[in-house]
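Example record for the data management plan.
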Amino acid sequence: MRKVLLIILIIIGLGVLGLASYSYIAPKLNPENRKIEAWIKTNNLNQYGDLENTAYSGGTPLFNPVTGKTTDRYDYIKNMHPNKPWNK
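Corresponding structural encoding:
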């Protein structure tokens, strides 16, 4: 009985891990996000789509210390580049 319970708990744990890793990887699977990643590499930009040597207050442009909110990296890039240069 203990072995069966242990197996069930392992299966549930793996399922939870799978969902967690999918939510981390899923945004990169988006076709537009793939284009953004290619554009960043091709143009030698930093991970935020800005010039490689750009410095940010607080170390990241994704965190707003006034509101305490964090912006998704792809949302930040899309807002900063409304002309979508990755589509050209």
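Summary line stored alongside the record: The chain has one domain: 2-87.
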